[in-house]
Amino acid sequence: MKLDETLWEFPCQLPLKIMGPADAPLREAVERIVLTHTPDFDISTLEIRMSRGGKYQSITINTFVTHKEQVLGLYTDLAKHQEETGHISLVL
Fold it and tell me: In what side-by-side order are the strands of the sheet with 56-65?
């Protein structure tokens, strides 16, 4: 993945929304991945919402990043988790 550095000013807040099936253990995986790349992330700020029909969940985080390698690492590890487990449907 290539990151257009002209679009970013580091340090900055990085909002992410991760969506997947309601029965997938996403919280633990997202916490582990985010804390790996941004160890100062406050996990108490992580929000989980269920879809109206109860089939899907979305996890919203807003973490502080200081350089592009953190952003690339987050997206890479989230994509790897999706490939390995199928628990992630979408990352925004």
Answer: 47-50, 56-65, 12-21, 90-91
